[in-house]
Amino acid sequence: MVTSQDAIDGFYIVRAIFHEVIDVSLVVHRDNKSYFGILLDDNNRKPLCRLHFNTLQKYIGIIASDKSETRYPIQGLNEIYNYAGKIKETLSYYEQTQNV
């Protein structure tokens, strides 16, 4: 599997969103067949968001407290910043159970 440059660039945007909140070294990525996962603590039980860039229409998947995912269509990478608040909100789900 080849990770696209868009996925890597999207990952760095998400890291930038978290830089004021946590140590960004805790934010890691894993490329899966159907999405590019961005995780906390390199733990697949702590997803922060998902990038779906394998089709013509790109999506960002925002994770809810029940671990469900809502996909939002984006036209370009800069639109990830429009979801910064929702992305940061995912961190609060894990802070409630463990200090980050």
List the helices and strands and how they pair.
Elements: H1 5-18, E1 27-31, E2 36-40, E3 47-52, E4 58-63, E5 69-74, H2 84-95
Antiparallel strand pairs: 1-2, 2-3, 3-4, 4-5
In short:
With 100 residues, the protein is α+β, with helices and mostly antiparallel strands. The protein has helices spanning 5-18, 84-95; strands spanning 27-31, 36-40, 47-52, 58-63, 69-74.
Secondary structure class reads alpha+beta
Query: What is the total number of structural domains?
Result: 1
Count of DSSP H/I helices: 2
Question: What is the typical, i.e. mean, pLDDT?
Answer: 92
Any idea what the shape is?
globular
Q: What percentage of residues falls in helices of 4 or more residues?
A: 25-40%
C-alpha end-to-end distance: 31 Å
Sequence stretches where pLDDT stays below 50 over 5 or more residues: none
Major pleated sheet: 5 strands, antiparallel
Instruction: Sketch the topology as an H/E string, one letter per element.
Output: HEEEEEH
Beta content comes to: 25-35%
Rg over CA atoms: 12 Å
Order of strands, widest sheet? 1-2-3-4-5
Strand tally is 5
Please explain how this structure is put together.
The chain is an alpha+beta fold and 100 residues long. It has one domain (5-78). It is built from two helices and five strands. It has helices spanning 5-18, 84-95, and strands at residues 27-31, 36-40, 47-52, 58-63, 69-74. A hairpin with a 5-residue loop joins strand 3 and strand 4. The relative contact order is 0.18.
